Amino acid sequence: MHIRILGGMEIRSSAGETLRLPTRKASLALAALVLAPKGVPRQRLCDAFWADRGDAQARSSLRQALAAIRRVVASEETGILIESDGETVRLAARPEDVDVRFFDHLAERSDPLHLAKAADCYQGDILAGIGLPGALDQWFAPHRRSYRHKALLLVERLSLLSGPDLKAVEAGCQALAERLLSIDPTAEEAHRALIRLHQRHGRMNAALRQFQFCKETLQRALGVEPEGRTRELMASPRQIAVASATTDVSPPRELPSIAVLPFQNLTAEPDQDYFADGVVDDIINGLSRYRSLLFVIARNSSFTYKGRAVDAKQVGRELNVRYVLEGSVRRSGSRLRIGGQLIDATTALQIWSDRFEGEVADIFALQDRIAESVVGALVPRVREAEMNRARRAPTESIDAHLAYMQAMGFFHTWSRDGLDRALQLSYRAIDLDPNYATPYGLALGCLFLRRTAGWGADPAQEFAEARRLCERVYEIGRDNFLSLGSAGFALAGLLGEHERGAALIDESLVLNPNASATLMQSSFVRTWMGQPDLAIRQLQRAMLNSPVDVLMFSMHTGMALAHFVAERDDEAYAWAEKALQRNPIAGPAIRVAAASAALLGRPLDATKYLSLLRQLDPGLRVANIGNRIPLRRPEDLERLANGLRKAGLPE
Q1: Is 41 helix (H, G, I), strand (E, B) or coil?
Q2: How many structural domains does the chain have?
Q3: pTM (2 decimals)?
Q4: Which of 17, 98, 200, 452 makes a 20 to 30 Å CA pair with 251?
């Protein structure tokens, strides 16, 4: 038995016979289960697949669909089973029986032949060619985007492999690159892979033709030039042809650079993942304090590797870092053990490893020791003064810090319930230690996201609360770059105090000039203030500092808005579409896409995006645009309103 959902959908028996489920909804329900190895709540399936029916009828339809799946697919003989505990439904299967799971299994391996097999698994986008209604398209779109991103990373990884007897690997790489370009001709990772293959075999004219095709496609489709990494491949083709294929094409950094990967949670309870993630957050922040000695990759890029088996060399190439810190966390009652190993990503050799044990109450001291050990290993002559400056616990209350760790876990779900829970836990941390600045910044982030998503319960009360939190950060958090950045962003975005907000963010950037999230916050504020070119420079730095950030769509949205304010509508539209390729329901990007398309005289695109925007924000009108985006200059707000008006937004 084999289930394929990459490049369409197909079910084949062990004898090679094509099998079909009786209804389209049953087939799509099977695809949803395939994509969720840990299972899907029954209620969520009912809400997404049978939203037009009452609760009882929807549950009955789900039972019928599951019964059909069991009859056709699931049995002891096939090894594929439908498991249910009453609340959650799960498809249990061996990786080799389900293409997306087999792809993930192979892509995590380091052996070139396994990677080539993974490339062969990717036959196209998830459910390609199958028309999906709006609600189900929103269900599958994040998975489609995720697997295409994985395939792009894989094709570049394959093209960088070197060594003897790689013909099968190169053939797989070429086939995958061509498939990806047939889906998206602007995929630069695939263009780069083909250029490298041509150069490796001395086909310089073919490499040049591929580059020219890439350049012309990007200009025609997006109005942009190829990325620096693509242009650098053609800087000296003959030299690159004989160079090591593993040479990174990203610009080198002056300071030693390091990525801290998510630590493995060795605690028996899986719900303690938030604690291991919180430990890593704190270590990243601790290392960031040595800003004159180290360049530390942002959390959002490091955490794209969570749950994946990757080697240090791969991380080094993809994040352009020299060193990788890996580790594990085990918590047993009040005891805590943290293990870590520092690896040179260019050689995969271990530089340092150690184990740190103590009480949970000693967590800050343990994290300081890890940070100091790493810095000491990388910069042997580190000054004692620098160590003393960085060695400072943010709170004396371990319970407050544990509450903050939990809050961060909920915050990164980006859901309404998650933000509500994160806000509650932030307030609990504040209650436990009113002088602990970090949770104030997180609470402000929750308030801002709730407002922009239309989830705020009482705007007047939340504005007053945001002001109180900002004033408190100003009093106690002047040495905390995270809290300062969040307070400045809230002052500008929620309270309309752009100048003061920008000043606080500037203070934050003095404390940590490489913080990608803070650079992104600053860029939005600068755009709102009418300084789009400064915003673009900050976003370019942020994207360099955090090249595979899970919030890259927000950075692309920032670029789109900045170009729109600068009245460069072609660039604005191109960046908005780039953001929507990563997150198809990013409201701020959809606003820019609709307005810029209308101003460019593209009524079909403008209508398409305005329709999607009104689905996501039914209450949006020309008269209340200013409630959604705090543009300070009247001419910028009027330009946005005019664009959306031309797209068809009611007054």
Answers
A1: strand
A2: 4
A3: 0.50
A4: 200
